[in-house]
Write a structure and sequence with these properties.
Luciferase, domain 3; 731 residues; alpha/beta; Rossmann fold; eight-stranded mixed beta sheet
Length: 731
C-alpha cells in the first residue's frame, strides 16, 4: 500500500518496499485556492451559523447475550440471527462448491486481472544497489468461466502427476492470479494446501515443509531460488511447479534441483487439459488449508482450517458488508498465505466481484518498482473495495497531515475547516452538512486525497491490529468511505467480530459475526472480570463453525488453546482482553502475554504503552520491554529517519551516518522527551514510561523477521536479536 519508505533503500517488505508519494496534489492546484477561498469561507460561515440542529445517532443494539449455562464466561451473538450461519447459500458447504457455483453464476463477469509487463530494467542506485523498475500496462482480465476452466485443468494436472488424497501441496509465493487458481485446483481434488509466507525465513520454511510432509511445492521464480538453497534439508518434496515470469530458471538453480521434477505452471495446466480427470470433491469437515502463521513467538504453527470453517466465515462476512456485487473491483495485494488476504478474496468471489492484482512494490505512481512515467496499480485499477492493515492507513494519514502542515496558510485553514465540519457531521449525525457544502469539500479538498487510492473506493476493511480512532476518522473524512474494522486470528479464519458499515463509532471492532459466538471469560490475575463495571471484561474466547480445527501435529498447543463444550462447540481462547459495550459491540483493550508485573507490583501492559508511544512523530516502530526484576521499563525505538534528521539539522547536531545520529545523546534525549509528551497525552502512568531507550537505525520488516506480515512486532524475535542492547539499558 502507500507508505513512507522508512529506510529508503529498496529492501523487500510491505513497509520498506513502498516509498513516499506526493500526498496532496491539490497543493499545486492551478489557482483554485485563490479563486475559491472567499467562496469557501463564506459558505462555510453561513452553514456553521445555520446548521445548528443535530441529533445524536442512537446506539442501536447489535449483539445480544447468549445462554451458555454450565460454561464459564459471558457470551454474545449477532442480534440479526438467532442461530449460527454455516453457508453463504444452500449447497455451498465447501470451498470447491462455493467456487464452482460462483463461477457458474457469474460466468461472463470479469474475475481475475493482471497487469501486462511492457518492459523491465535494472538500475544501479548511488550506493551500488540494483533496483528493478517495471513499465506496466493495463489490466488483462479473465472472466469467471475462463478461470474455472483453468482451475479444472490444473486440478487434473496434479492428479496426473500422481497426487492422491493423502498428499499435500504447498504454495510459497507472493499474491497473484495463479496462487488462487492453484489453491482452487487442489480443493477440487480434496488436496490439502499448505500456505507459506513468501517472507518466511529458511528455518521456518524447512520446518513447515518437512512437518507437513509436502510432496509438491508451488512457487514463483524468486522463491525457487530460496528453495534451491535449502534443497538438502527438504525430506519429502519431490515436485516443484513454478509460475513463469519474465526470467528463465538459472542453470545454478536447475543443478541444485536436478533430482526433482520441476515443471512450469502452464505445463501442468496443459497436462490436465489433455488428460481431464473427474473431480474428487471434499466434505465440509475435510482440511482445506494448513496455514502457517508468522506468529510473534518461536517457529510458526500450522493452523488446520477446514472447508466448513472457511465457508462459514464467508457467509458471516457477507451479511455485514454493504451492497457489493459484480460491479465492484477489489485490489488483491495482501498475502494470500495470510488468512486475512485469503478470506477477503473468498468473500469477493462469493459476491461476483472482479479482483485486480497488485503489490506493495507497484501500488502507486511513485512506488519503488514503478518506472518513472508509469502509473501504479491503484491509478490503473481504480478499485472500489480495499483491505488494509492499520500501519498503512496511519502512514497515509501522517503523510497528508505533514504536507498540509508544511503548506500552511490558507490551505491549512481550509483543510482544517473542512475536516472539522465533516467530523462533526459524522459524530453527531448532522444532516445539514450535505448538499452544496459536501460537494465543495469533496471536490476541492478531499478529492485529490481520494485519488491516491484511485478515487472510487467506497468500502474499506481494516484488520490485523487495532486501528486508532484518529486514523479511522481520517479514512471516513478524507477518503470518503466507511471502514469496517475486523477482529480475528488465523485460528478463527481471519474474523470473529466486524464493525457494521452504518456504525460510526471508533475504537471498537463491532459485534460477533453471525457465524460465531464471542464470550468473555474472567481473568482474575490480571484484574479483568465479567462482573466489572461499567462494562464486563475478560479474555476473548470465540466459538462456532468458523473456529479452526487446531494446530497440525501439535496436540499440546491445541489442547491448551481450544476447548470443546458439552454441546460439541469448539472454543478458541485468544489471549486477548476485551470488553462488551452495552450495544453488544466488542472493544479490544489488552493482551495477556503483554502484561508484565514490575518489581514493586505494578502491572504494565506493553501493547497498550507501545500504541500510545507510537503516536510520537519520531517513532516508526517501538518495543517496550519490562521484567519483574526491575522497577522500570525500557524501549527499543526505530526512529522515523526523516524526522530525526530534520531535528538534527535544526539543532545543529553534526553526524556522518544515520547510525551515528542514533547513538547521539542529544538525539536520544529528544526522542525520549517526545515519548514523555505522548505518554502524558495518552494518560499513561509514570511507571509506563520507558526510563531508558535505545535508537535502532534499521527498519523492522517482515523480511527481517522482526514484524509479521500484518506489521505487528514479533516480541520474542526482537528480544532475541537485541538481547545485548536490552541488558545494557538496565545497567
Amino acid at each position: 500500500m502507500i507508505m513512507e519508505n522508512i529506510k529508503g533503500d529498496g529492501t523487500d517488505g510491505l513497509v520498506s518496499q513502498t516509498n513516499s508519494i506526493s500526498y496532496v496534489p491539490f497543493l499545486k492546484e492551478q489557482g483554485l485556492i485563490s479563486i475559491f477561498a472567499a467562496l469557501f469561507l463564506s459558505i462555510a460561515v453561513f452553514l456553521v451559523l445555520s446548521c445548528t440542529n443535530s441529533r445524536k445517532n442512537k446506539q442501536k443494539k447489535r449483539g445480544i447475550v447468549v445462554d451458555t449455562s454450565g460454561e464459564p464466561g459471558l457470551a454474545m451473538r449477532n442480534i440479526k440471527f438467532d442461530y449460527l450461519i454455516r453457508e453463504p447459500w444452500p449447497g455451498a458447504s465447501t470451498l470447491a462448491s462455493l467456487f464452482e457455483q460462483a463461477c457458474e453464476k457469474f460466468s461472463e463477469h470479469p474475475y481475475l486481472g493482471t497487469r501486462s509487463l511492457i518492459s523491465r530494467e535494472v538500475i544501479e542506485s548511488n550506493d551500488g544497489r540494483k533496483i528493478e523498475k517495471l513499465h506496466l500496462g493495463e489490466y488483462e482480465w479473465e472472466n469467471y468461466g475462463a478461470v474455472f476452466s483453468r482451475v479444472c485443468n490444473f486440478a487434473s494436472g496434479v492428479v496426473q502427476m500422481g497426487h492422491d488424497l493423502d498428499s499435500r501441496l504447498a504454495i510459497f509465493s507472493d499474491t497473484r492470479a495463479e496462487w488462487l487458481i492453484a489453491s482452487q485446483g487442489c480443493f477440487r481434488q480434496s488436496l490439502t494446501v499448505v500456505t507459506i509466507y513468501a517472507s518466511l525465513g529458511e528455518d521456518a520454511l524447512v520446518h513447515s515443509l518437512n512437518e507437513t510432509q509436502v510432496s509438491t511445492l508451488i512457487c514463483d521464480l524468486k522463491q525457487l531460488k530460496k528453495v534451491a538453497a535449502i534443497r538438502p534439508r527438504l525430506v519429502t518434496v519431490k515436485n516443484i511447479i513454478y509460475f513463469e515470469d519474465y526470467e528463465e530458471v538459472g542453470d545454478d538453480v536447475k543443478s541444485k534441483l536436478s533430482d526433482l521434477a520441476v515443471l512450469p505452471f502452464r505445463e501442468v495446466e496443459q497436462l490436465g487439459k489433455n488428460n481431464p480427470t473427474l473431480p474428487r470433491l471434499p466434505e465440509s469437515d475435510n482440511i482445506a488449508v494448513i496455514m502457517y502463521t508468522s506468529g510473534s513467538t518461536g517457529l510458526p504453527k500450522g493452523v488446520m482450517i477446514s472447508h466448513g470453517n472457511m465457508v462459514s466465515l464467508v457467509a458471516g462476512v457477507r451479511t455485514v458488508v454493504p451492497k457489493i456485487g459484480p460491479g465492484d473491483v477489489y485490489l488483491g495485494y495482501l498475502p494470500l498465505a495470510h488468512v486475512f488476504g485469503l478470506a477477503g478474496e473468498l468473500v469477493v468471489l462469493s459476491l461476483g466481484c472482479a479482483i485486480g492484482y497488485g503489490s506493495p512494490l507497484t501500488m502507486t505512481d511513485t512506488s519503488n518498482k514503478i518506472k518513472k512515467g508509469t502509473k501504479g496499480d491503484v491509478s490503473v485499477l481504480r478499485p472500489t473495495l480495499l483491505i488494509a492493515v492499520p500501519a498503512i492507513l496511519d502512514q497515509i494519514r501522517d503523510g497528508v497531515s505533514k504536507k498540509v502542515e508544511e503548506k500552511g496558510g490558507m490551505l491549512k485553514k481550509l483543510f482544517s475547516l473542512a475536516y472539522n465540519r465533516r467530523l462533526k457531521a459524522i459524530e453527531s449525525d448532522l444532516f445539514g452538512v450535505s448538499g452544496v457544502e459536501t460537494f465543495i469539500w469533496d471536490k476541492f479538498i478531499f478529492k485529490p486525497i481520494r485519488a491516491l487510492l484511485g478515487g472510487r473506493v467506497r468500502f474499506m476493511l481494516c484488520g490485523g491490529a487495532p486501528l486508532s480512532a484518529d486514523t479511522q476518522r481520517f479514512v471516513n473524512i478524507c477518503l470518503g468511505t466507511p471502514i469496517g474494522q475486523g477482529y480475528g486470528l488465523t485460528e478463527t479464519c481471519a474474523a470473529a467480530a466486524f464493525t457494521e458499515w452504518d456504525d460510526t463509532t471508533v475504537g471498537r471492532v463491532g459485534p460477533p459475526l453471525p457465524c460465531c459466538y464471542i464470550k468473555l471469560v474472567s481473568w482474575e490475575e490480571g484484574g479483568y472480570t465479567i462482573s466489572d463495571s461499567p462494562m464486563p471484561r475478560g479474555e476473548i474466547v470465540v466459538g462456532g463453525p468458523s473456529v479452526a480445527m487446531g494446530y497440525f501435529n501439535n496436540k499440546e498447543k491445541t489442547k491448551e488453546a481450544y476447548k470443546v463444550d458439552e454441546r460439541g462447540m469448539r472454543w478458541f481462547y485468544t489471549g486477548d482482553i476485551g470488553q462488551f459495550h452495552p450495544d453488544g459491540c466488542l472493544e479490544i483493550i489488552d493482551r495477556k502475554k503483554d502484561i508484565v508485573k514490575l518489581q514493586h507490583g505494578e502491572y504494565i501492559s506493553l501493547g497498550k504503552v507501545e500504541s500510545v508511544l507510537a503516536t510520537s512523530n519520531y517513532v516508526a516502530n517501538i518495543m517496550v520491554y519490562a521484567n519483574s526484576f526491575n522497577s522500570y521499563c525500557v524501549a527499543l525505538v526505530v526512529p522515523v529517519r526523516e524526522e530525526l534528521e530534520k531535528w538534527a539539522a535544526n539543532a545543529g547536531v553534526a553526524y556522518q551516518a544515520f547510525e551515528e545520529l542514533c547513538e547521539n545523546e542529544k538525539a536520544i534525549s529528544e526522542v525520549q522527551q517526545s515519548l514523555l509528551k505522548a505518554a502524558k497525552a495518552g494518560k499513561l502512568d509514570k511507571f509506563d514510561v520507558p526510563a531508558k531507550i535505545k535508537l535502532l537505525p534499521d527498519p523492522w520488516t517482515p523480511e527481517s523477521g522482526l514484524v509479521t506480515v500484518a506489521l505487528k512486532i514479533k516480541r520474542e524475535a526482537i528480544k532475541a536479536k537485541f538481547n545485548e542492547e536490552l541488558q545494557k539499558l538496565y545497567q
